[in-house]
Amino acid sequence: MRSLSSMCRVSWKDRCRNSNVRERCGLKEDVVTGVERGMLRWFARLERVNKSSLTKQIYRANVCDKKAGEGRLRKCYADHIGGILKKGQMLSARNRRAA
Prior knowledge:
This is Reverse transcriptase domain-containing protein. The protein is mainly alpha-helical. 62% of the residues lie in helices and 0% in strands.
């Protein structure tokens, strides 16, 4: 949001909402949603690719079992996709209930 507001010449002192800054820049959705949509598009393409493809082999490899120092395990790409899909199912269930 900082980069968007600087492109639209909106200072933090103006106390504009993020949605207003996005409208001024001509964006209809927030950046996170756009990135998630791109990840899902790439995942769909990856699922259609041959099993022998190097990209698919790397995706299928289980490399996220290692710890990154202390703390929790690293998230692999499949975990990110699963979270996005789960969030999308919850949103669609909410929309069905509202309708």
